[in-house]
Task: structure prediction
Amino acid sequence: MQSWQKSTLALSLLIGSALTCSAHTVEKPRHITFADSAHKKELNINVQLLDSVAVTNLSNAKTHYDNAISIRLSLDGKLTDAFQFSSRVKVNTDYTNRKINFNYYNPDEGIPYNKQSEKKRTWDLFAANLSYKLKPMTLLAGFDFIEWGPARRNHVILRGESNFYRPWQDSSSRIPDAAPTPYFGYQFVLGPLEYTQYAAKIYEKKGFGKYIHAHRLSMSLPKEVTLGLSETSLYGTTTEKAGSNPNPDSDSTGRDFEWAYTIPFIPYVFQEHLQGDQDNISLAFDLSVKTFPNWEFYAELLWDDMKSPTSMFDDSWWGNKWATTLGLARDNILIGPANLGWMFEYTRIEPWVYTHHKGTGYTYASYAQSLGSDLGPNSQELHTEINAAYKFLKATVFFGAVAKDTAFGGHINDLHTPESAMDKKFLNEKTTIRYKELGFNLAATPWDWLSFRCSYTRFFGDYKGYRTYAVGSLQW
Result:
C-alpha cells in the first residue's frame, strides 16, 4: 500500500467511519507572541499541520480518493494601535487516485500547481493585509479576499474566501480554493455611514492586465437595520484573437489601470460614460435586519447591465441580468446546555450574469473562478441548516437543492454575440442539472492544540451517491 493511502486510512480510522469535513479553517490559538513591555508592538505566530481525506462516489463516475497534507503559517499583530497587519500562507501536497493534468501557470487554468506525478501535486497560496488609521480615514492594502454582503452562504456581489463543493466542478486539475487579489483602498466612517473603496488587479491571462474597482456605502439605521449600496467596475485587455469576437465593440486591445476610478464618492456608472462607455459596471444592494433579538433577515441583489429596475422580470432581452440571495436566520437558541442556530437561504442567478460580450477580459472572474457566487450564471440554490454547539463540539445538519443550467449562457466565459438569441431562459428543463444534498458536519476541539472537522453528504437527483471528507489539525 502506498504511503499516502496508509495516511488516509489511519486518519479515517482516527476520525471514525470516513465522514466528510467542512472546508473552513480551524480557529488557531496564539501560542507564540512577541511584544514590547507596553504591548504597543506585537507579533503573533500560529502554525498548523493538517491531514485530510475525501472519498467521493457519484453516479457515472469512478470512486475517487483524495488526500491532502497542508502546512499553514499565519502572522498578525501591530506596529502601533493604528497600524495593524496579518498574513497567512499554506503549502499543500495532494494525492489522488485520479490523473492530474499539467498546469502551466496560466490564470485561466485556475490557481496554479506543480504536477509531481500522475497522482501527486503540490501548490501554495497566501494572503496578507494591513490597515493604517488616519482619522477620519483608514488606509487599506493587501493581497487578500474581498467579501461584501450579509449572506451566510452564497454571496452574489463579492464572495471573498467562501467556497463550497459543487459536483460539476470536481476535478483533480482544479484547485477548489478561492483566489486572493492584490488591492489598495480606504475607508471613511462618518457616524452611521461607512464608505469603503478598493482598486484591485485580477487575473485572466498571463501578461494581460485585468482590473476591478469596487466601492460601497453602508448605512446603519435605527432598529438594527443596515443598508448597503455598492458598485463594481471591471475591465481588461482583450484576450481573444483580433476579429474572433463578432461584437463590434469587442476589440479594446490593451487596457491600462484607470486611475479615475480611485477617486472617492464618484458613481462608476457616470465615470464610465466619460471614459467611453466601455467597462463592465454592476450595481448592488444589500440589507440586514436584526430588529428582533437573535433574528436576522438579509438580502443581496446584484444588477448587471439591466435597462431599468422593472426589466428584472423581462426575459425578452438577455442583458436583463441579475442575481439575488435572500436569507432568514435565528441564532442563540438555548436548550439546556446547548446553543442552537438555524438558517434558510435562497439564491437565484439569472442567465449571463457575470459574463460580458467583450470577452474574458471583462468577465466577473479571476483565476477561472467567479468573484461572485461560485454557482455561476443560470443557477439557483435553496439551503437550510440547523447547528448545535455544546462545550467543544459543534454539529450541523443541512439540506440543499441545487439547479444548474449547462446551456449557452450558463458558464461565466460564454460569449453572447449578435447571432445569439436575444431572449433568455432560466433553468431550461432539457439542459438543467438538478440534485439535492443531505448531510451533516461535526467539529470537535477537545484541546486548543488539536481539532477535527468532519461530515457526510448524500446526493440525490442528477447526481447520486455520497461524498465524505475528514480533516485533523495540530496547531500551536
